[in-house]
Design brief:
This protein is α/β, with parallel strands linked by helices and about 240 residues long. It contains nine helices and nine strands.
């Protein structure tokens, strides 16, 4: 299988948007939860790990006054997202930056993106960080949000018990069968990822661990607006 960055998932970027919807149940619903959780007054948004731009599009569609600065370390993902954003007519409201958000967490002064964001969002990216780096990132996000700013993350979470791992996997298999999806064929298109920058192959943490880290990192209110077996949207306000 082809070597890819963690988060790129598929060896061929053209297959990502279709493939991720076949691998993950309720992918669009999960992203739409993030878009719906942003206050209507949201204007300035930081996105960490924009991938092919699907979350960006949902947010820009919903909030006509919003602008997004999106960090992603994958040149091919950024190129794909930029083309999609431009085709939708949102190029004046979206700025893609090739960068590792782990670097941003450790050295924010080296990034010319400013602070005082109304919101920060991420999907299917932060779970590639080891827990100590996740916590450092959450601290930096909290420090970079304006008063009452919010953060929302959509990610797979580690089951609290081995028995739940089986439950989650059976649920995914049954969902795929109901959709007429052959998971083996989809998984055959997935590349093999190695460590790249601060990101690694899956470094999952439990939902409780995420909630605890967010609270210690400076989020006054931490909530979980959506969960489907091993997938969750969680975050809160500073």
């Amino acid at each position: 299988m082809s070597q890819i960055f963690p988060g790129e998932v598929f060896a061929n970027t053209d297959e990502f948007d279709t493939g991720i919807r076949q691998l993950l149940p309720k992918y669009d619903e999960m992203l739409e939860v993030i878009a719906h959780c942003l206050p209507t007054s949201t204007r300035r948004i930081l996105e960490l790990g924009c991938g092919t731009g699907e979350l960006s599009l949902k947010i820009l569609n919903r909030y006509p006054e919003a602008k997004i600065i999106a960090l992603d370390y994958s040149p091919r993902m950024l190129e794909f997202a930029q083309a999609k954003i431009t085709a939708a007519g949102y190029e004046q409201r979206w700025t893609g930056v090739q960068a590792d958000f782990g670097d941003w967490a450790h050295h924010p002064a080296e990034f010319d993106i400013g602070r005082e964001f109304d919101a920060c969002v991420s999907s299917l990216a932060i779970h590639h960080l080891k827990d100590e780096i996740k916590f450092k990132l959450f601290q930096q996000i909290a420090d970079s949000l304006s008063h009452h700013g919010c953060f929302w993350n959509a990610d797979p979470v580690l089951p609290e018990l081995p028995a739940l791992s089986e439950v989650y996997e059976i649920a995914r298999e049954e969902w795929a069968t109901q959709q007429g999806i052959e998971l083996a064929a989809v998984r055959a298109k997935v590349g093999t990822s190695n460590t790249q920058g601060y990101s690694n192959p899956d470094q999952l943490a439990t939902l409780d661990t995420h909630i605890h880290m967010l609270a210690i990192a400076g989020f006054e209110t931490v909530v979980v607006p959506w969960k489907y077996y091993g997938l969750a949207v969680f975050g809160g306000w500073v």
